[in-house]
Amino acid sequence: MTVSAEVQITDLAINDHACLTFGEPEELLDLTAAFVRDGLAGGLRVVWLCEEPQGALAELNRRGIAVQSATASGRMDVVASQEGLLSGQVFTVDHAMGWLSSQMELTAHEGYSGLRVALDMGWALRPVHGVEQLPAFEEQIATILSDSSVSVLCQYDRERFDPVTLASVSPFHTRAVAAATYHDDPLLRICRQYAPPGIRVAGQIDRAAEDALALALSEAIRTEGPVTINMAELSFIDLSCTRTIIDVARSLAPARRVVLRCSPAIVPRFVLLGAQGIPGISLVTAHER
C-alpha cells in the first residue's frame, strides 16, 4: 500500500518557503499547530497571521501548545491578517514586505535564533484592493528568505482558491507541504495527525478500508508518547474497524495513553465493544476539550 505525502510539516527547515494547500479547517489547524510546536521547541520565535486569532489560540492550546507562556514571553504572536499584511482593505507588496521585515528585525533584536511565520491567505478571498499583487508578494518572500534563518508557511484553501491563483504562486515556494495520507476518496480520508500525534479519520469507514486503517495505526504507535485517534469528522464506522482500533490500543502498555476522539454518532460503537473499560484508553466526544 502506498502512503501519499509530499514534504511533511515536521521536515521543514530554516529558510524554507513552504506552501500548504488544505482541504478542511482541521487539516489547517493540525499542520499549523505542528509548525508552531516545532518552532517553539527549537527556540525560535513564531508568528501566525490568521483569520480568527482567538479561535486559533484556543485550538493551539487544545493541541498541546503552551499558549499562555509562549505569548506572555513574546515567543509567539497570533494576530489577524489585516494587522500585518493589509492596510485597511488595501494590499500592497511594499506594506506586506515591510511587516515581514519588521518581524525579522524584532526576532534578531530579541536574540532568537530564528523565526517561523505562518500566513493564512484567506484574506485574499475577500474584496481586497490590490489582491492581484499576491504572486509578486510570494516572489518577494522567496527573495528575502535566501540566506536567512526565517521559514514561512503560506496557507491556501484548495477548495476556495481557484486553480489559476494556486498555479501562479506555486513556483515561488521551495516546498509543498501535505499530511501523510493513507486513504483519500469522496467518502473517506485517513491521514496522519501531527499535533497531537496520531491519525485522523473523516467520512465513513468500513472493512473495505481496513488495511489502510491498520497501516495508519501501525505507523502512529511507532512514535513515543500518547496517541490520538481523531474521529471527530467520522459519521460511520463498522464493527470490524472499531475492533481494529480497540485491538491496537489494547496492545500498547497501559501506561501509554490512547485518546479516541469521536463524533457523537460513533461513540456507541466503542462503548459497545468495551473501550471505556480498557486501561489507557480515553474515550472523548468531539465537543469535549
Beta strands, count: 15
Mean pLDDT: 93
Main sheet record: 7 strands, mixed
Rg measurement, Å: 20 Å
Helix count, DSSP H or I runs of 4 or more residues: 9
Determine the fraction of residues in helical runs and give it as a percent range.
25-40%
Low-confidence parts: none
Distance between the termini: 34 Å
Q: What's the SSE pattern?
A: EHEHHEEEHEHEHEEEEHEEHEHE
Strand content: 25-35%
| Helix/strand class | alpha/beta
Shape: globular
Keywords:
289 residues, 27% strand
General description of the model:
With 289 residues, this protein is an alpha/beta fold. 34% of the residues lie in helices and 27% in strands. The protein has nine helices and 15 strands. The chain has helices spanning 25-41, 53-62, 67-72, 93-109, 134-145, 163-169, 210-220, 239-251, 267-272, and strands at 17-22, 45-50, 76-80, 86-87, 90-91, 115-120, 150-157, 175-177, 181-185, 188-194, 197-205, 227-231, 234-237, 258-262, 281-285. The strands form three sheets. Strands 9, 10, 11, 12, 13, 14 and 15 form a seven-stranded mixed beta sheet that branches. Strands 3-2-6-7-1-8 form a six-stranded parallel beta sheet, sandwiched between helices. A hairpin with a 2-residue loop joins strand 10 (188-194) and strand 11 (197-205). The chain is globular and about 60 Å long. The protein starts with 16 loop residues before the first strand and ends with a strand.
Write the layout of secondary structure elements.
Blueprint: E1 17-22, H1 25-41, E2 45-50, H2 53-62, H3 67-72, E3 76-80, E4 86-87, E5 90-91, H4 93-109, E6 115-120, H5 134-145, E7 150-157, H6 163-169, E8 175-177, E9 181-185, E10 188-194, E11 197-205, H7 210-220, E12 227-231, E13 234-237, H8 239-251, E14 258-262, H9 267-272, E15 281-285
Helix pairs in contact: 4-5, 7-8
